[in-house]
Write a structure and sequence with these properties.
single chain; 194 residues; alpha+beta; Jelly Rolls; 6-stranded antiparallel beta sheet; 18% helix
């Protein structure tokens, strides 16, 4: 499967129920994951039936089978929400990532980037030194470090997927919304296709 960015609109037929399910989660936790980082306002979806349902919708929407979800979570980005790194890649998780917007806030989405110095929009084979620089550069909002290559605009109930090797970051980087019911709310998936 060669996909750099694929979009499915109106992903959940029962969108309102899924949004209510997400909003009912406890976003005050900050679990630590395989990379050793804590992820605030990130709730892992452990319900295997729900993950199978999501995988079946992806199969219908994209026409491929064998979707194996490695990690699924709801993320609520309110004012003050900050992750370890802004521009990043998720290639240690799985081959593909997907984001489904469960809110209706215009002007948000996911921005994709290319690193100026290295000329890559995906994680290349890297030395330890280069990996450290990319991690450090991931927090720089600087046009001399990163160039925008693509943008997936949010739309209520829109799901988009892309290879986890692509450099990307939430847009805008910070939220000014304080109430969870009105804030950016997404479902994030990491998956492989067999």
């Amino acid at each position: 499967m060669k996909v750099s960015l694929a979009i499915i609109d109106d992903f959940f037929p029962d969108f309102n129920e899924v949004r209510e399910f997400a909003l009912s989660c406890d976003f005050e936790q900050a679990p630590k994951f395989v990379d050793g980082h804590n992820y605030p306002r990130h709730v892992e979806i452990k319900d295997d039936h729900f993950k199978s349902y999501v995988a079946s919708l992806m199969t219908l929407g994209m026409g491929f089978g064998g979707v194996q979800i490695r990690h699924a979570a709801f993320v609520s980005a309110v004012k003050g929400f900050k992750t370890q790194q802004w521009i990043h890649a998720d290639n240690i998780c799985a081959k593909f990532a997907a984001v489904c917007h469960l809110h209706n806030i215009h002007g948000t989405g996911t921005m994709f980037f290319e690193h100026h110095q290295y000329g890559h929009d995906m994680v290349p084979p890297v030395s330890e030194e280069m990996a450290a620089q990319l991690r450090d550069d991931g927090n720089k909002d600087d046009a001399n470090v990163w160039r925008t290559t693509d943008y997936a605009a949010s739309r209520c109930n829109r799901l988009y997927m892309f290879p986890t090797e692509r450099f990307h970051g939430r847009w805008p980087r910070f939220s000014e919304i304080e109430e969870a019911e009105d804030a950016r709310l997404t479902m994030v998936l990491f998956f492989d296709v067999h």
